[in-house]
Design a protein that fits this description.
By secondary structure, the protein is mainly α. The chain has one domain. 76% of the residues lie in helices and 0% in strands. The protein is built from three helices and no strands.
Length: 72
């Protein structure tokens, strides 16, 4: 369940980043009018993947046993 939540949180972060940076993304993709939609989707997918990996790494690090602790 934790991995799915990380994916969903990453999607929310990607959507928020797209909303906040919409003018920057449009300006960056304006120079390729035929591929602008593809560029928008690619940017969103990359931001989602990076955010998902960051959340996933934080989840795995938080579940890792600490040095010197016993799991008895």
């Amino acid at each position: 369940m934790g991995h799915a939540v990380c994916g969903l949180a990453g999607l929310v972060v990607a959507a928020a980043a797209l909303v906040v940076g919409w003018s920057v993304v449009l300006a960056a993709t304006a120079w390729v009018p035929f591929l602008s939609t593809t560029a928008l989707v690619a940017v969103t997918a990359v931001v989602w993947a990076v955010a998902w990996l960051a959340f996933e790494s934080a989840l795995l690090l938080s579940r890792r046993p600490r040095a010197g602790s016993s799991n008895r």
